[in-house]
Design brief:
The protein is of the alpha+beta class. Helix content is 16%, strand content 46%. The longest helix has 20 residues.
Length: 171
């Protein structure tokens, strides 16, 4: 085998493998959106974005008694925007507080029926924005400053789902 063939064969194999994997994207890859928001999509999902303030103040709870009543609250206004020509339905919100030492404190999942009870409707109209105020009680485990991670699951009218994650500082 010539030296030329020995050098070209591996190059061609790697090139073909790279090009063939390009066409195998099924639309479920994680990507970073324009605002630095992690987005997980299911197929060709309608455009959506979730925004929160960059920082909130921890609110003390009078007469708190752990573990029955947490000593602090982290309030956040979660704005969900439907950037396409179809309505979105908010399915679930996941809230998780992690203090500055990395200790995970409170975790809360708010599913569809509870969201409907809290807000009356979970519909975000096409090309519209809707704000959902949520509060996470925390402070029985870990410190009082840290990061609040919020995951928002939504679906369009065709049933395609989207999970978007955002975070904000709690001081």
């Amino acid at each position: 085998m010539s030296i030329c063939r020995a050098l070209i064969t591996p190059f061609l194999c790697i090139s073909v493998a790279a090009l063939s994997s390009y066409g195998c994207d099924d639309g479920t890859t994680t990507r970073i959106g324009p605002s630095g928001v992690n987005t997980k999509t299911d197929g060709r999902f309608v455009s959506t974005s979730v925004t929160v303030p960059t920082e909130v103040a921890a609110l003390p709870v009078p007469a708190a008694f752990c573990p029955f009543v947490s000593p602090f609250l982290a309030p956040a206004n979660v704005a969900v925007r439907a950037g396409g020509a179809t309505d979105l339905q908010l399915l679930e919100m996941q809230l998780r507080f992690v203090d500055i030492a990395g200790v995970t404190g409170a975790v809360r999942t708010i599913a569809g029926p509870e969201l409907t009870n809290m807000f009356g409707s979970t519909l975000v109209p096409a090309f519209g924005t809707r704000t959902f105020p949520v509060t996470l009680p925390f402070g029985c485990v870990g410190g009082t400053t840290g990061t609040l991670f919020i995951g928002v699951a939504a679906a369009d009218v065709t049933g395609r789902r989207n999970m978007t994650s955002v975070q904000l500082n709690v001081r």
